[in-house]
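All the exercises in this workshop are built on plain-text protein records. A record pairs a protein's sequence with a compact description of its fold. Read left to right, the backbone structure tokens trace the chain's path through space. Once this layout is familiar, the rest of the handout is easier to follow. Here is such a record, shown just as it appears in the course material:
>
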Amino acid sequence: MSRTHSRRPALRKLVAAGAVSLGMVLVPAVSAAPASAQPATPAGATIPFGDGYMGAGYLGDGKTFAPDTRELQLDAGSSVSVQATQLPGIDVSHYQGSINWSSVKSAGIKFAYIKATESTTYKDPNFNTNYVNAYNAKVIRGAYHFARPNLSTGAAQATYFAGHGGAWSRDNLTLPGMLDLEGGCYGKSASAMQSWILDFYNTYKAKTGRDVVIYTSASWWNSCTGGWSGMSARSPLFTAHWTSASSPAIPKGFSHYTFWQYTDSGSVSGISGAVDRDRFNGDASRLLALANNTA
């Protein structure tokens, strides 16, 4: 079974979930690492190596773990005004294929997170093109790392990420790197997962000077870290909650969110097929402050 970027992300997720339940291993259509460097799907993981992207494990995590449906409380009359102040964004990987970033910018997209790496051997084959072209189109963008906590230490993966696209510079267009946490607990206890995340965070900050953004869902975080509050004061939260509600569910241990992935089936000019759509919880001045570390 193969995957192509023309498939809608929702379909990709359902196909992947069905294949895992049948014991099948999906082979990535494109890979930047040699086959010898790519391990088989490791025990405790639900997503084949190289196939990780933001939301790849969302449906499975929601079924496996008890979801946290807490939502930020907003006044009934404020939901429209709150969303009006949230800036539109997207997140992409090689599954979106060739992207016309000038068209994306013209469509009103203010920011994007772009997949860079997985573990310590895989780099998304479209990352360099996407990252440079988004920059040239003046889309504020950041890189993200798909975590594989059972393959190597947090420090090793943070080092690889920082050296293969996750670095940061104050140039008005670069967001801090993001750590994508989803797809099961990888055989780790809550305390072991907390240690792994902190190891990644400390190493990334030492190398870049920035606090890494954390992407996760309430169901994954609550189950795999035990609802740990240890990152709330350190990392901006990118919460995954696909809903039409006016505010998202957030993991225990966090009091607010910075980014929100609200759907996996958005449409944006310049991108063929479906794309994840996101919101930044603030105005343009706050997004620029986060990019330039002047918040």
Remarks:
- The radius of gyration is 18 Å.
